[in-house]
Design goal:
The protein is an alpha+beta fold and about 190 residues long. Helix content is about 20%, strand content about 35%. It has 4 helices and 9 strands; from the N terminus they run H-E-E-E-E-H-E-E-H-H-E-E-E. Strands 1, 2, 3, 4, 5, 6, 7, 8 and 9 form a 9-stranded antiparallel sheet that branches. A hairpin with a 5-residue loop joins strand 1 (about 25-30) and strand 2. It is globular, with a radius of gyration of 18 Å.
Length: about 190
């Protein structure tokens, strides 16, 4: 299976970031029920083949309801060292513990103990209570909680804005054209 050119370039940009944690941070844009835009930073968790990527979420968060209402989303991923900005657009499929237990269990085990702890915290976005418990670690031996969720972006369109040259270079790839590259004005 041939790796699309956009993915090869993105992987090269990620490598130029070195071991920085921020190289795994990307922004996910969704649409709320009232039509307003929402954006938040998530952590890249891995590729699924050449045309999908995984993110993890808490099923109790607002983004889950937003994605049920409108599953189309876009990710913006900035690589400062490479001076590349990638925008990946597509549909998000939600993989829950109930529907995809094996996949979720493998993902849960791959997290660090402190990463798993986030799912032991109270519901996101709710009022803070000083007596609430916020564990620092959860063992891999613990089953993933019901609210652990994988968000799988099925990529339909990729844009690269390369800021390393003059003029800036903007490229577009679409699944519908078998990832043929098209140059756009920046």
């Amino acid at each position: 299976m041939t790796i699309p050119l956009w993915k090869q370039r993105l992987q090269g940009a990620r490598q130029r970031e070195g071991r920085k944690r921020s190289a795994r941070w990307l922004q996910l844009a969704t649409v709320a029920k009232d039509g307003s835009a929402r954006v938040r930073t998530l952590v890249f968790r891995g590729w699924v083949g050449n045309e999908a990527l995984d993110l993890f979420s808490d099923q109790r968060s607002d983004k889950v309801e937003e994605l049920q209402h409108q599953p189309q989303a876009e990710i913006c991923w900035l690589f400062p060292n490479a001076r590349h900005q990638y925008r990946l657009r597509g549909l998000i499929h939600q993989l829950s513990v109930d529907e995809a237990s094996d996949i979720c269990r493998q993902a849960w085990i791959a997290l660090t103990a402190s990463g798993r702890a986030l799912w032991g915290w109270p519901s996101p976005g709710q009022p803070f209570h000083k007596d609430a418990e916020f564990p620092e670690e959860i063992s891999a031996d613990t089953d993933p909680p019901h609210h652990f969720l994988i968000l799988r972006l099925m990529i339909e369109r990729v844009e690269l804005l390369d800021l390393s040259c003059h003029p800036h270079q903007r490229l577009l790839w679409c699944r519908s054209t078998d990832w043929q590259e098209q140059r756009l004005n920046p």
